[in-house]
Predict the structure.
Amino acid sequence: MSQFLNFTGRRGVLSHFLFSAMCTGIVAIVVFADPAAMFGAPSTLARVATAATLIAAVVPAQIAATAQRCRDVSLSGWWAALLLFPPLGLPLWAWLLVVPGKPRLNRYGPPPGESGAVYGRTAW
């Protein structure tokens, strides 16, 4: 689980895309489905608590992955904090899904897939 909350290192575009798709899917299930019915929570308070718990697990992991992706394109990881403000964060997130990372060592470490990089050569 610690790999999902790691704010250091770099993350490639494919890994960021796949992780973002997983997080978006979890949030979509929470928002559009009835998680209380899935987990057997009967009251409105239980529904809110279930949704808040699932979202609280996803948001920090998504911010950590975005911070790693920002470092891959030589931006400070603090840019990932913009995800907390959707009008500013969504354009950044979309841009990070299409811009290629720096192919060489930068001040944040080696590119993903090289020795010491985060999560190996492919998706993770």
User: Anything to note?
Assistant: Residues 2-98 form one domain. The chain has one domain: 2-98. The helical segments are 13-32, 35-39, 44-72, 86-98.
